[in-house]
Amino acid sequence: MKIYAVCGAGIGTSVLLKSNADRVLAAMGVEAEVQAVSIADAMSSESLAQIVLITPELQQQIKGIRSEVIPIDNIFNLEEIEQKLTAALS
After folding, report:
1. Looking at the whole model, is its pTM more than 0.90?
2. Of 6, 44, 55, 82, which residue is 20 to 30 A from 88 by alpha carbon distance?
3. Which pLDDT belongs to residue 12?
4. Domain carrying residue 27
5. CA 79, CA 84: separation in Å to the nearest integer?
6. Rounded CA separation 55/8 (Å)
7. Which tens digit of pLDDT belongs to each residue from 54-76?
């Protein structure tokens, strides 16, 4: 499974979100490749991500994407990330 952690440039918030998603997925025993990417990368026609994690304020910028979009309100809240990933994976 491929998951994108998305922010505007792919080097700030997305890196923090990727790190926390990796921790949550490892604790859940789920194997997935998480990449920190920019909005442009996530919107690319060559995107292979099944799930996109993004902050709510950027969510409108990726309308029409074929991946499942999961808004994360607090990128440091591991419980929120786990709850939303669990729901998406079931």
Report:
1. yes
2. 44
3. 87
4. 2-89
5. 9
6. 10
7. 999 999 999 888 899 999 999 99
